[in-house]
Protein backbone atom coordinates (compact mmCIF):
# COMPACT_ATOMS: atom_id res chain seq x y z
CA UNK A 1 0.00 0.00 0.00
CA UNK A 2 1.06 3.60 -0.63
CA UNK A 3 2.07 5.56 2.47
CA UNK A 4 1.50 9.27 3.11
CA UNK A 5 3.77 11.07 5.56
CA UNK A 6 2.16 14.20 7.01
CA UNK A 7 3.19 16.04 10.18
CA UNK A 8 5.58 13.22 11.01
CA UNK A 9 2.82 10.60 10.86
CA UNK A 10 2.44 7.81 8.31
CA UNK A 11 -0.96 6.90 6.88
CA UNK A 12 -1.81 4.05 4.53
CA UNK A 13 -3.71 5.06 1.40
CA UNK A 14 -6.54 2.73 0.45
CA UNK A 15 -7.05 1.68 -3.16
CA UNK A 16 -8.51 4.57 -5.25
CA UNK A 17 -8.57 6.83 -2.16
CA UNK A 18 -7.48 10.45 -2.49
CA UNK A 19 -4.85 11.99 -0.26
CA UNK A 20 -7.46 14.37 1.17
CA UNK A 21 -9.89 11.59 2.09
CA UNK A 22 -7.09 9.63 3.72
CA UNK A 23 -6.08 12.61 5.87
CA UNK A 24 -9.68 13.36 6.85
CA UNK A 25 -10.29 9.71 7.69
CA UNK A 26 -7.37 9.94 10.11
CA UNK A 27 -8.79 13.06 11.78
CA UNK A 28 -6.28 15.53 10.37
CA UNK A 29 -7.62 19.10 10.28
CA UNK A 30 -7.54 20.09 6.60
CA UNK A 31 -9.41 23.01 5.01
CA UNK A 32 -11.57 21.83 2.11
CA UNK A 33 -14.94 22.31 0.44
CA UNK A 34 -15.65 20.96 -3.03
CA UNK A 35 -13.36 17.90 -3.15
CA UNK A 36 -13.19 18.33 -6.93
CA UNK A 37 -10.28 20.76 -7.39
CA UNK A 38 -12.42 23.84 -8.01
CA UNK A 39 -12.09 25.83 -4.80
CA UNK A 40 -8.40 24.95 -4.24
CA UNK A 41 -8.90 25.45 -0.51
CA UNK A 42 -7.13 22.17 0.31
CA UNK A 43 -3.90 23.05 -1.57
CA UNK A 44 -0.80 21.47 -0.01
CA UNK A 45 2.87 21.03 -0.92
CA UNK A 46 4.95 17.92 -1.53
CA UNK A 47 8.34 17.50 0.12
CA UNK A 48 9.30 14.18 -1.43
CA UNK A 49 7.72 11.93 -4.06
CA UNK A 50 5.94 12.22 -7.39
CA UNK A 51 2.59 13.95 -7.79
CA UNK A 52 0.22 13.00 -10.66
CA UNK A 53 -0.17 15.89 -13.11
CA UNK A 54 -3.95 15.79 -12.65
CA UNK A 55 -3.55 16.91 -9.04
CA UNK A 56 -2.03 20.23 -10.17
CA UNK A 57 -4.85 21.07 -12.58
CA UNK A 58 -5.86 24.73 -12.33
CA UNK A 59 -2.88 25.81 -10.23
CA UNK A 60 -0.65 28.64 -11.42
CA UNK A 61 2.80 27.95 -12.84
CA UNK A 62 4.33 29.55 -9.74
CA UNK A 63 2.38 27.17 -7.50
CA UNK A 64 3.43 24.17 -9.58
CA UNK A 65 7.08 25.23 -9.31
CA UNK A 66 6.66 25.30 -5.52
CA UNK A 67 5.40 21.67 -5.66
CA UNK A 68 1.88 22.64 -4.67
CA UNK A 69 -0.86 20.14 -5.46
CA UNK A 70 -4.53 19.42 -4.75
CA UNK A 71 -4.87 16.43 -2.39
CA UNK A 72 -8.55 16.08 -3.34
CA UNK A 73 -7.42 15.06 -6.86
CA UNK A 74 -4.31 13.13 -5.90
CA UNK A 75 -4.15 9.32 -5.92
CA UNK A 76 -0.39 8.67 -5.79
CA UNK A 77 1.10 5.32 -6.69
CA UNK A 78 4.28 5.84 -4.63
CA UNK A 79 4.99 6.92 -1.05
CA UNK A 80 4.94 10.71 -0.57
CA UNK A 81 5.87 13.26 2.10
CA UNK A 82 3.55 16.28 2.19
CA UNK A 83 3.02 19.45 4.21
CA UNK A 84 0.77 22.49 4.44
CA UNK A 85 1.74 25.35 2.13
CA UNK A 86 3.99 27.95 3.71
CA UNK A 87 1.92 30.80 2.29
CA UNK A 88 -1.84 30.95 2.08
CA UNK A 89 -3.41 32.19 -1.11
CA UNK A 90 -3.81 35.95 -1.27
CA UNK A 91 -7.16 37.38 -0.17
CA UNK A 92 -8.71 40.61 -1.40
CA UNK A 93 -10.96 42.84 0.72
CA UNK A 94 -14.14 43.87 -1.11
CA UNK A 95 -16.98 46.16 -0.02
CA UNK A 96 -20.61 45.12 -0.55
CA UNK A 97 -22.16 47.75 -2.84
CA UNK A 98 -25.56 46.23 -3.57
CA UNK A 99 -27.59 43.24 -2.40
CA UNK A 100 -30.71 42.18 -4.29
CA UNK A 101 -32.88 39.28 -3.08
CA UNK A 102 -35.00 37.77 -5.84
CA UNK A 103 -38.19 35.74 -5.46
CA UNK A 104 -36.49 32.67 -6.95
CA UNK A 105 -34.26 32.38 -3.87
CA UNK A 106 -31.26 33.95 -5.56
CA UNK A 107 -29.11 36.74 -4.14
CA UNK A 108 -27.44 39.15 -6.55
CA UNK A 109 -24.43 40.55 -4.74
CA UNK A 110 -22.35 43.39 -6.15
CA UNK A 111 -19.02 43.99 -4.44
CA UNK A 112 -16.31 46.58 -5.04
CA UNK A 113 -12.89 45.02 -5.55
CA UNK A 114 -9.41 46.60 -5.20
CA UNK A 115 -8.16 48.62 -8.17
CA UNK A 116 -5.50 46.05 -9.14
CA UNK A 117 -7.84 43.03 -9.08
CA UNK A 118 -8.03 41.19 -12.42
CA UNK A 119 -10.57 38.67 -13.70
CA UNK A 120 -12.38 37.34 -16.75
CA UNK A 121 -16.20 37.22 -16.67
CA UNK A 122 -17.18 33.59 -16.14
CA UNK A 123 -14.35 32.82 -13.72
CA UNK A 124 -15.16 32.19 -10.06
CA UNK A 125 -13.94 33.42 -6.69
CA UNK A 126 -13.80 31.84 -3.25
CA UNK A 127 -15.52 33.75 -0.46
CA UNK A 128 -14.30 32.94 3.04
CA UNK A 129 -16.53 33.32 6.07
CA UNK A 130 -14.80 34.53 9.28
CA UNK A 131 -15.42 31.10 10.84
CA UNK A 132 -13.39 29.49 8.04
CA UNK A 133 -15.95 28.06 5.58
CA UNK A 134 -15.16 28.67 1.91
CA UNK A 135 -17.52 28.59 -1.08
CA UNK A 136 -17.07 29.30 -4.81
CA UNK A 137 -19.23 31.77 -6.75
CA UNK A 138 -19.01 32.70 -10.44
CA UNK A 139 -18.59 36.20 -11.86
CA UNK A 140 -21.44 37.53 -14.01
CA UNK A 141 -20.05 41.03 -14.64
CA UNK A 142 -17.52 42.72 -16.90
CA UNK A 143 -14.26 44.23 -15.72
CA UNK A 144 -15.08 47.95 -15.55
CA UNK A 145 -14.10 51.31 -14.13
CA UNK A 146 -16.60 50.71 -11.31
CA UNK A 147 -14.28 47.98 -9.94
CA UNK A 148 -17.37 45.87 -9.34
CA UNK A 149 -17.96 42.12 -9.30
CA UNK A 150 -21.48 40.73 -9.66
CA UNK A 151 -22.24 37.34 -8.10
CA UNK A 152 -25.47 35.31 -8.34
CA UNK A 153 -25.90 33.13 -5.26
CA UNK A 154 -28.57 30.49 -4.68
CA UNK A 155 -29.93 30.63 -1.13
CA UNK A 156 -29.99 27.39 0.87
CA UNK A 157 -31.61 27.58 4.30
CA UNK A 158 -28.99 25.34 5.88
CA UNK A 159 -26.11 26.59 3.75
CA UNK A 160 -23.30 27.82 5.98
CA UNK A 161 -22.30 30.61 3.62
CA UNK A 162 -25.53 31.38 1.78
CA UNK A 163 -27.51 31.81 5.01
CA UNK A 164 -24.76 34.15 6.25
CA UNK A 165 -24.79 36.16 3.02
CA UNK A 166 -28.59 36.19 2.94
CA UNK A 167 -29.31 37.05 6.58
CA UNK A 168 -26.27 38.89 7.91
CA UNK A 169 -24.16 40.57 5.23
CA UNK A 170 -25.26 44.14 4.56
CA UNK A 171 -24.30 46.96 2.19
CA UNK A 172 -20.99 48.44 3.35
CA UNK A 173 -19.72 45.19 4.89
CA UNK A 174 -16.35 43.74 3.90
CA UNK A 175 -15.98 40.35 2.21
CA UNK A 176 -12.69 38.59 1.51
CA UNK A 177 -12.34 36.86 -1.85
CA UNK A 178 -9.61 34.86 -3.56
CA UNK A 179 -8.00 35.64 -6.88
CA UNK A 180 -10.21 34.80 -9.86
CA UNK A 181 -10.00 31.11 -10.76
CA UNK A 182 -11.21 28.81 -13.53
CA UNK A 183 -10.83 28.39 -17.28
CA UNK A 184 -14.47 28.87 -18.35
CA UNK A 185 -14.35 32.29 -20.01
CA UNK A 186 -14.54 33.97 -23.43
CA UNK A 187 -11.41 34.37 -25.52
CA UNK A 188 -10.85 36.48 -28.62
CA UNK A 189 -9.98 33.29 -30.54
CA UNK A 190 -13.70 32.44 -30.35
CA UNK A 191 -14.76 35.77 -31.86
CA UNK A 192 -15.63 34.34 -35.29
CA UNK A 193 -17.33 31.17 -34.01
CA UNK A 194 -20.95 30.65 -33.05
CA UNK A 195 -21.37 30.42 -29.29
CA UNK A 196 -23.66 28.04 -27.42
CA UNK A 197 -24.10 28.62 -23.67
CA UNK A 198 -26.05 26.00 -21.70
CA UNK A 199 -26.91 26.29 -18.02
CA UNK A 200 -29.38 25.67 -15.22
CA UNK A 201 -29.98 27.51 -11.94
CA UNK A 202 -27.25 29.94 -10.96
CA UNK A 203 -25.10 28.17 -13.53
CA UNK A 204 -26.41 31.03 -15.65
CA UNK A 205 -24.21 33.50 -13.74
CA UNK A 206 -20.91 32.65 -15.50
CA UNK A 207 -22.76 32.28 -18.82
CA UNK A 208 -24.17 35.79 -18.45
CA UNK A 209 -20.65 37.02 -17.75
CA UNK A 210 -19.33 35.22 -20.84
CA UNK A 211 -22.17 36.60 -23.00
CA UNK A 212 -21.58 40.13 -21.74
CA UNK A 213 -17.87 39.78 -22.46
CA UNK A 214 -18.47 38.48 -25.99
CA UNK A 215 -20.93 41.27 -26.76
CA UNK A 216 -18.54 43.90 -25.38
CA UNK A 217 -15.90 42.57 -27.79
CA UNK A 218 -18.37 42.93 -30.70
CA UNK A 219 -18.61 39.18 -31.24
CA UNK A 220 -19.00 38.57 -34.97
CA UNK A 221 -21.29 35.54 -34.96
CA UNK A 222 -24.41 34.21 -33.24
CA UNK A 223 -24.66 33.75 -29.48
CA UNK A 224 -27.27 31.29 -28.19
CA UNK A 225 -27.99 30.74 -24.50
CA UNK A 226 -30.15 27.81 -23.41
CA UNK A 227 -31.52 28.18 -19.88
CA UNK A 228 -33.23 25.36 -18.04
CA UNK A 229 -35.37 25.24 -14.93
CA UNK A 230 -38.07 23.33 -13.10
CA UNK A 231 -40.71 25.97 -13.86
CA UNK A 232 -40.99 29.54 -15.10
CA UNK A 233 -40.55 30.90 -11.55
CA UNK A 234 -37.12 29.27 -11.28
CA UNK A 235 -35.74 31.26 -14.23
CA UNK A 236 -34.38 34.10 -12.10
CA UNK A 237 -32.24 35.57 -14.91
CA UNK A 238 -34.97 35.65 -17.55
CA UNK A 239 -35.53 39.47 -17.45
CA UNK A 240 -31.80 40.09 -17.78
CA UNK A 241 -31.47 37.66 -20.70
CA UNK A 242 -34.48 39.13 -22.50
CA UNK A 243 -32.94 42.59 -22.11
CA UNK A 244 -29.68 41.35 -23.66
CA UNK A 245 -31.58 39.82 -26.59
CA UNK A 246 -33.56 43.02 -27.22
CA UNK A 247 -30.38 45.07 -27.35
CA UNK A 248 -28.23 42.66 -29.38
CA UNK A 249 -29.47 41.17 -32.66
CA UNK A 250 -27.00 38.26 -32.55
CA UNK A 251 -28.03 37.16 -29.03
CA UNK A 252 -30.84 34.60 -28.76
CA UNK A 253 -32.43 33.09 -25.63
CA UNK A 254 -33.84 29.54 -25.55
CA UNK A 255 -35.91 28.48 -22.54
CA UNK A 256 -36.60 24.95 -21.31
CA UNK A 257 -38.82 24.20 -18.31
CA UNK A 258 -39.94 20.83 -16.98
CA UNK A 259 -43.27 21.92 -15.49
CA UNK A 260 -45.86 24.29 -16.97
CA UNK A 261 -49.39 23.84 -15.63
CA UNK A 262 -50.76 26.58 -17.90
CA UNK A 263 -49.32 25.13 -21.08
CA UNK A 264 -48.06 21.51 -20.79
CA UNK A 265 -47.04 21.51 -24.46
CA UNK A 266 -44.43 24.16 -23.64
CA UNK A 267 -42.46 21.83 -21.34
CA UNK A 268 -39.07 20.86 -22.74
CA UNK A 269 -36.17 18.78 -21.46
CA UNK A 270 -33.01 20.84 -21.93
CA UNK A 271 -30.93 17.96 -23.30
CA UNK A 272 -33.61 16.90 -25.78
CA UNK A 273 -33.96 20.52 -26.86
CA UNK A 274 -30.22 20.96 -27.43
CA UNK A 275 -30.02 17.67 -29.31
CA UNK A 276 -32.91 18.70 -31.59
CA UNK A 277 -31.99 22.34 -32.24
CA UNK A 278 -28.18 22.16 -32.20
CA UNK A 279 -27.53 18.87 -33.97
CA UNK A 280 -24.37 20.07 -35.75
CA UNK A 281 -21.93 21.93 -33.48
CA UNK A 282 -18.91 21.68 -35.75
CA UNK A 283 -16.73 24.79 -35.22
CA UNK A 284 -18.96 26.06 -32.40
CA UNK A 285 -17.64 27.25 -29.03
CA UNK A 286 -19.68 25.69 -26.20
CA UNK A 287 -19.91 26.72 -22.54
CA UNK A 288 -21.73 24.54 -19.97
CA UNK A 289 -22.45 25.41 -16.34
CA UNK A 290 -24.40 23.54 -13.66
CA UNK A 291 -24.18 20.54 -11.36
CA UNK A 292 -21.77 17.66 -11.92
CA UNK A 293 -24.22 15.22 -13.55
CA UNK A 294 -25.74 17.95 -15.73
CA UNK A 295 -22.36 19.13 -16.99
CA UNK A 296 -21.07 15.63 -17.77
CA UNK A 297 -24.23 14.65 -19.65
CA UNK A 298 -24.22 17.91 -21.62
CA UNK A 299 -20.51 17.60 -22.45
CA UNK A 300 -21.13 14.17 -23.95
CA UNK A 301 -24.16 15.42 -25.88
CA UNK A 302 -22.42 18.39 -27.51
CA UNK A 303 -19.32 16.32 -28.27
CA UNK A 304 -21.46 13.75 -30.10
CA UNK A 305 -23.06 16.68 -31.96
CA UNK A 306 -19.69 17.65 -33.41
CA UNK A 307 -18.20 20.13 -30.94
CA UNK A 308 -14.42 19.85 -30.68
CA UNK A 309 -13.30 18.83 -27.19
CA UNK A 310 -10.94 21.83 -27.09
CA UNK A 311 -13.91 24.14 -27.70
CA UNK A 312 -16.07 22.76 -24.88
CA UNK A 313 -15.68 24.76 -21.66
CA UNK A 314 -17.41 23.87 -18.42
CA UNK A 315 -17.91 25.03 -14.86
CA UNK A 316 -19.23 22.46 -12.38
CA UNK A 317 -21.21 23.81 -9.44
CA UNK A 318 -20.82 22.00 -6.14
CA UNK A 319 -23.53 22.26 -3.47
CA UNK A 320 -22.33 21.74 0.08
CA UNK A 321 -23.99 19.12 2.20
Automatic annotation (TrEMBL):
Annotated ranges, domain FAD-binding FR-type: 89-187
**One function term, GO molecular function aspect:** oxidoreductase activity
Which is one Pfam family of this protein? Fer2
* Domain called 2Fe-2S ferredoxin-type: residue spans: 1-88
> Domain of life of the organism in this record?
Bacteria
In Swiss-Prot or TrEMBL terms, this protein is called Ferredoxin
Q: Which organism is it from?
A: Fluviispira sanaruensis
What high-level taxonomic lineage is stated for the organism? Bacteria, Pseudomonadati, Bdellovibrionota, Oligoflexia, Silvanigrellales
Amino acid sequence: MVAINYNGKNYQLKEQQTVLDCLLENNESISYFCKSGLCQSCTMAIEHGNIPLKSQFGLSEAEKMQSHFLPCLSKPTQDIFIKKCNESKKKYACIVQEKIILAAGVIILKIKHPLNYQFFPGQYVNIKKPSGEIRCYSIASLQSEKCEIELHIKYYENGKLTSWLYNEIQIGDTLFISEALGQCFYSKEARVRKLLLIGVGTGLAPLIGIARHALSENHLSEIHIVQGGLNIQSLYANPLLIDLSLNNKNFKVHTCILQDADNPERTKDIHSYVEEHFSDLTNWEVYICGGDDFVKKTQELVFLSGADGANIHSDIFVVSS
